[in-house]
Amino acid sequence: MKIGFIGLGNMGGPMAANLAKAGHKVAGFDLAAPMPGGVVKAASAAEAAAGAEVVITMLPNGAILRAVADEIVPAMAAGAVFCDCSTVDVESARAVAGQAQAAGLGALDAPVSGGVGGATAGTLTFMVGGSAEAFDKVKPLFDIMGQKAVHCGEAGAGQAAKICNNMILGVTMIATCEAFALADKLGLDRARMFDVVSTSSGYSWSMNAYCPAPGVGPASPADNGYKPGFAAELMLKDLRLSQQAAEAADADTPMGELAAALYARFVEDEDGKGRDFSAMLPRFEARHRQ
Ligand code: NAD
């Protein structure tokens, strides 16, 4: 298949490389990042998109996605599919899908879970909004870049699934970290705490797969000085998207709101920027009841 790929950063680079490795013809464009092996560099986003059957974008945010869409939608071939894999606000996802459909294109919002490790290994999970026809056309590419693709519903449904998932993740990480800090003060050994909670009703991905306590549980960023992994500022971005969506949809999300406020303080006023999002544990360790 002829593929255009725009945004080849930490995630997009290895995703595009996997498509090229599988034998697809990939034309890439990025303002800064180098092209990975097998990807042909285009002179502009429009040039990467022209003539492609599927155009994939992997960009930092909704405003940049909208600007890129303005540039590439007129350049895309009739019947091609515009597949955005970035994490953006639901409104931008729906606006770009509407713009593409009005121009006779297919459109999907297909954000991912799995991080840079998953992008490199080709084991991402895709959560996808858009028509069944567009989903079926891009599914073979999802199968190369990932291990699972769920068709969640119409335009915006993929972003909705992503921000709901990450709101749960932010809240459970905070709960897990504050519980470890409390356990410390109660004199409970961390390994014993993990042993109990990871097989009791307090378990979660944050505890079991990504334990924020160094030396406890499986290897995680906590064992590597809290080097990301998944940076605290990216968690803050996703929590803000969840709160923006909650406000637009008039949904009551008090825990998500509190998690967004805590990560904002951590990233903007404390030492959280550039650290893994599980570094909430040393933050709680260092603080007393207020
Ligand atoms: P990144 O900053 O490494 O990559 C983004 C790339 O987009 C950069 O290389 C940048 O030069 C390029 N870019 C920006 N504006 C552009 C434009 N107008 N035209 C062409 N290229 C442009 O970010 P990333 O970590 O690869 O994340 C990309 C998206 O994936 C984000 O929406 C992020 O939230 C999401 N995501 C990231 C992770 C992760 O662990 N890093 C996990 C899941 C989802």
From TrEMBL:
Its EC number is 1.1.1.31. GO terms for biological process: L-valine catabolic process. Gene3D superfamilies: N-(1-d-carboxylethyl)-l-norvaline Dehydrogenase, domain 2, NAD(P)-binding Rossmann-like Domain. InterPro entries: 3-OH-isobutyrate_DH-rel_CS, 6-PGluconate_DH-like_C_sf, 6PGD_dom2, 6PGDH_NADP-bd, HIBADH, HIBADH-like_NADP-bd, HIBADH-related, NAD(P)-bd_dom_sf. It comes from the Bacteria. Pfam families: NAD_binding_11 (PF14833), NAD_binding_2 (PF03446). Pathway: Amino-acid degradation; L-valine degradation. GO terms for molecular function: 3-hydroxyisobutyrate dehydrogenase activity; NAD binding; NADP binding. The active site is at K162. Residues 156-281 form the 3-hydroxyisobutyrate dehydrogenase-like NAD-binding domain. It catalyses: 3-hydroxy-2-methylpropanoate + NAD(+) = 2-methyl-3-oxopropanoate + NADH + H(+). SUPFAM superfamilies: 6-phosphogluconate dehydrogenase C-terminal domain-like, NAD(P)-binding Rossmann-fold domains. Keywords: Branched-chain amino acid catabolism, NAD, Oxidoreductase. PROSITE patterns: 3_HYDROXYISOBUT_DH. The keyword Oxidoreductase applies. Residues 2-153 form the 6-phosphogluconate dehydrogenase NADP-binding domain. Belongs to the HIBADH-related family. This is 3-hydroxyisobutyrate dehydrogenase.
